[in-house]
Write a structure and sequence with these properties.
The chain is an alpha+beta fold. The protein contains 9 helices and 12 strands.
Length: about 280
């Protein structure tokens, strides 16, 4: 078994190994090749600073890393680590980690960020032993589109309009907490997927905004002006999203900061259910 840096030419083998490695994952993953590629771009995949493990020229494991600034430090983000079932328990994950660390340090990376399911106690213990520390807890919520589409939500004094040129600095003023790596502003700017940015306007003033990937029903960002909350604006925007993402059959919001009780209370009040919890973890390099 050998480890080596990946190259764009490895994509086909990487996709096949990804599907095999996550065939028994705790959360069912269905991913087309096109969406897998788009997500890799969105999260900032750097092939050279990622690794594949090969047994007799067959890729049996991988770690994909995104590289960007995070909290003003050059950071590697473990987008995805997987090993195919029949090669687990052979130390491949440790070998890939040992291969990557010196390469990341040589590239000037100062910290290593990842997320791990809280239900995956073995992985959490492994990362803790390697020196990762918990930075926050994150929650993942979903709802069937039909539940929101059926709700009667109206406001006569507001209008929902698509935003062609997002004003990110304005959006940030609505935040109570910072999005995770995959939902960050930088990730949104990189993303080639079809996404829709909508705003709720009171007259000409923006009072809420949200971003939707209609194909998957994923909502990476949604926020309401602090002075206009509890007026049905957020619910109105989500109802619009449910109708736009009808083919997906659901809406999902991944990685809400657990400390934001107001955010979680809002989504739970309109029927969203928690389907996973994660730890965000960091290793100083």
């Amino acid at each position: 078994m050998i480890c080596r840096s990946l190259q764009p030419e490895d994509f086909e083998a990487l996709y096949s190994t990804f599907i095999e490695a996550f065939s028994d994952y705790q959360i069912k993953i269905q991913m087309t090749k096109e969406r897998f590629n788009a997500i890799n771009i969105r999260r900032g995949l750097n092939y050279e600073l990622s690794v594949g493990a090969f047994d007799d020229n067959k890729m049996v494991g991988f770690t994909l890393n995104g590289i960007d600034l995070w909290e003003d430090k050059l950071t590697a983000y473990d987008m995805c680590t997987g090993v195919i079932p029949e090669h687990r328990g052979k130390g491949i994950g440790n070998s890939m980690f040992a291969f990557l660390l010196p390469k990341l340090r040589m590239a000037g990376v100062k910290q290593y960020l990842l997320e791990v399911l809280r239900s995956n106690e073995a992985a959490h213990k492994l990362y803790t032993r390697k020196g990762f520390r918990e930075t926050r807890k994150l929650e993942c919520l979903k709802i069937t589109s039909s539940k929101l589409s059926a709700k009667t939500i109206t406001r006569q004094d507001t209008a929902i309009r698509q935003i062609e040129k997002p004003d990110w600095s304005r959006f940030e003023t609505f935040w109570d907490w910072n999005p995770s790596w995959q939902n960050s502003i930088d990730s949104m700017k990189r993303c080639p997927e079809e996404k829709m940015v909508y705003g709720v306007f009171h007259g000409d003033e923006l009072r809420a905004y949200g971003i939707l990937y209609p194909e998957s029903g994923d909502i990476p960002q949604i926020a309401v002006d602090k002075d206009f909350r509890r007026r049905g604006i957020g619910s109105l925007l989500l109802k619009e999203f449910a109708e736009r993402a009808g083919a997906a059959g659901k809406l999902s919001i991944v990685n809400i900061d657990s400390s934001s009780k107001e955010t979680l209370s809002f989504f739970e009040s309109i029927g969203f259910e928690n389907f996973a919890g994660q730890y965000e973890m960091m290793l100083d390099l």
